[in-house]
UniProtKB/TrEMBL annotation:
Name of the featured protein: Protein YqcC
Species assigned in the record: Pseudomonas chlororaphis
GO biological process, one term: single-species biofilm formation
All copies of domain YqcC-like, residue ranges: 8-106
One Pfam family this sequence matches: DUF446
SUPFAM superfamilies xref list: YqcC-like
PANTHER family (UniProt xref): CYTOPLASMIC PROTEIN, CYTOPLASMIC PROTEIN-RELATED
Superkingdom, taxonomy of origin: Bacteria
N-terminal signal peptide: none
Length: 111
C-alpha cells in the first residue's frame, strides 16, 4: 500500500464534508449520459461540484480500496480556480480550493 493512502483518504473525506456543508452534495445522480462525458472534468455535462461528487470521489475511493496506483499528477485545484473565478469569491469557495490544493500536493508528494 502506498504510504500516502491514509492521508489521501482523510483529505477525500474533508472534501466530501465541505461539499455537504456548502449544500453542494446531491442526493440524485446525474444521468448516465452526463457521467459518461469524455471531456476533462466532464465540463460539457456536469458542474464542477457534481464532477467532484460523482466522478472524482468514487474513482479515488476505488483506487484506495483496490490498492491501485495513484495518479502521477493532479490539477484539480487549478480547475477549481477557473470555475470559481466566474463567481464572487466566497469563503466557502476558498475553503474548497484549499482542500483541493492539499489533495494535489499529496498526489505529487513522493512515497
Amino acid at each position: 500500500m502506498d504510504a500516502r493512502f491514509p492521508k489521501i483518504a482523510e483529505q477525500l473525506l474533508l472534501i466530501e464534508r465541505e461539499l455537504r456543508l456548502q449544500g453542494l452534495w446531491d442526493d440524485t445522480p446525474p444521468s448516465a449520459e452526463a457521467l459518461a462525458s469524455v471531456e476533462p472534468f466532464a465540463v460539457d455535462t456536469l458542474e464542477f461540484e457534481q464532477w467532484l461528487q460523482w466522478i472524482f470521489l468514487p474513482r479515488m475511493k476505488v483506487i484506495l480500496e483496490q490498492d491501485l496506483p495513484l495518479p502521477s499528477a493532479s490539477g484539480i485545484q487549478e480547475m477549481a480556480e477557473v470555475v470559481f473565478a466566474g463567481r464572487s469569491m466566497q469563503g466557502r469557495d476558498l475553503q474548497l480550493q484549499i482542500l483541493l490544493k492539499e489533495f494535489d500536493q499529496l498526489i505529487v508528494t513522493t512515497r
